[in-house]
Inverse folding.
């Protein structure tokens, strides 16, 4: 039994240490939205790429309005630009603010249920720039809420 627990611990250790990189650069085709859905972020939310962060994204507080959609996601525009940060030795080395918002998956069982996005080069495009996982969904009702 002791050997079995040791073996399981040894096999699971690499899985626990493995973390997916949230940073993305995926262009998505969209169409204008026709519904009046919103997402509200009362206090703002920050996300980091690792425990010892090298990059971060902050969703500012406010009401995010549905602006676009496709078959997979709804795209909610932030009332203020998203805040990007690059860290080195726990200090901010670069800071940028870019208009964008949060995209929410239309189906509950998605590999990437939500993400941060910015505008693409064309009007009918959005670029996924930060993948948000199930931890984001678990914060619904506490750090963000939707109107639908």
């Amino acid at each position: 039994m002791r050997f079995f627990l040791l073996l399981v611990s040894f096999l699971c250790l690499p899985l626990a240490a493995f973390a997916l990189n949230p940073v993305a650069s995926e262009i998505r085709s969209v169409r204008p939205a026709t519904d009046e859905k919103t997402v509200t972020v009362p206090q703002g939310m920050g996300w980091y790429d690792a425990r010892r962060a090298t990059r971060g994204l902050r969703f500012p507080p406010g009401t995010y309005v549905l602006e676009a959609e496709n078959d997979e996601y709804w795209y909610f525009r932030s009332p203020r630009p998203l805040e990007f940060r690059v860290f080195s030795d726990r200090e901010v080395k670069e800071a940028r603010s870019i208009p964008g918002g949060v995209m929410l998956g239309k189906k509950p069982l998605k590999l990437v249920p939500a993400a941060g996005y910015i505008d693409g080069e064309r009007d009918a495009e959005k670029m996924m720039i930060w993948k948000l996982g199930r931890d984001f969904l678990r914060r619904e009702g506490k750090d963000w809420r939707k109107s639908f």
The helical segments are 2-17, 134-138. The radius of gyration is 18 Å. Residues 1-18 have pLDDT under 50 and may be disordered.
